[in-house]
Amino acid sequence: MLEARLTTLFGCIATLATALAPGLEVAYSLERATQGIAISPDGRKFLSQRYSTQFPPQAVELLSDNTTALTTFVNIDGARIGPDGCYWLVDGGSTGLNGSTKFVGMNSSTNTVDSIYYLDDIKASDSGIDDVRFGASGDMAYLSDTANALLVLNLTTGNGVRVLFL
């Protein structure tokens, strides 16, 4: 019920914004809240949709014909195009299920998963991983940890360390 009301509210906001700002138009409209919008070097548009009461978290590609391609995950917490052109997703996994927190690299050229790094060995048991940034060289990923820390992950070796925790 709440989700239906929010969808209606967001639709009204988009309509109002379009009416109040001449020249502004809705480019794309989805039924669910989104986050993590990313555009690949070749112009592909990706975003993530978090958990809702009706649907699982999904990585979404906005296709040129205004349709979407969907890939289901356990718990998407962050997403970004990396320096390598891959679409990287932080999958927070399932609370209490060891080995489920992971960092997934999807190759946007081949539409395949190129890399999976499991993060449970380097994160705190009571923390969540919720976003990522990359080093300038592209071989290091810096993932934010909700328990006052960062995970530093070497994408070449797969080694990682948790730093800055209090």
TrEMBL record:
This protein's UniProt keywords: Signal
Segment forming the signal sequence: 1-19
Top-level division of the source organism's lineage: Eukaryota
InterPro entries: 6-blade_b-propeller_TolB-like
Record-given protein name: SMP-30/Gluconolactonase/LRE-like region domain-containing protein
